[in-house]
Amino acid sequence: MLVLSPYLMLRNMILVALVAALTAAIFTVAHAEEFGITRRVPVVQIQQQPSQQILPYVVRIIAFDSTGQSFGTGSYIGTYGEYGVILTNWHVVSETDSLIHVHFPSGFSSFGARVKGDDKWDLALIAISKPPQFIPALTISQTPAKQGDSLWIAGWGSGSYRIAEGRCVRYMALEIPKDGSAPLNETIEVSVSARKGDSGGPILNQKGELAGVLFGSDMIRNTAGSYSGRVNHFLSETYSVMAYLPSRPESHFATIEQGGPLRSLRESRSVTPQSVEAPQRPDLSGSSGSSFGVRSSSRRYVPPISF
After folding, report:
1. What's the pTM value of the predicted model, to 2 decimals?
2. Fewer CB under 10 Å: which end of the chain, C or N?
């Protein structure tokens, strides 16, 4: 019978303990990364379990105006000083005359204000209070998606989160130049339908980067949006505007909403549209692609609120 010396027994016990600890550490890190605790959720995992992945940088947007509320989706793309920066559609926030409400899946909420918009490409930037906790920001792709590539769209619809997979169908132009120059094929089409309220949500590539910002859908099969190159161009023109904002977001928001918010952040978190209407998508019949129907936004119309 083999008898181990006390030294060998102690050494073996230490080795076993080290292996167990290392295995546990690897599992813990993998588990944390899987659910986006330490960094952005890889799209490979999104593809495997789409119904269970709530991306931390995809936010719900509620914009108030004199006639009601406009619902949309946005993406958290970083910070600027004490501000957080949200990318969405212009048509989601274009009619607001007050503060915007932005809700993160983590539970953090903030008032927001429009910084700049681009009506033609339906892009807008919103400034919010900088999140107090770490929230991973969405990276914008520097390489356009190719035809046939897998793409995902994510949004909050009328209040319910969804992420859905499709493929890059083609690139289109919003209009054909009358001067005979080459059209700007900067509208990406994806073979998955968006819902009303998904407007402004991200189109994601296989690396988990933003490949576009969706702005319209035929409500049956396909979704369209501004591709990442156009988004980068918009941001390069917009970030300089952030430098003129007050250093404290609270003071900036106070100048917008003198009489207080139409609805508190706590109350607006659970709001859903009572009736759904959507502004019409600009006519694309003269474009190099097909014409899309309504934009994927939703509105709840209510009587004007008096202070």
Report:
1. 0.75
2. N
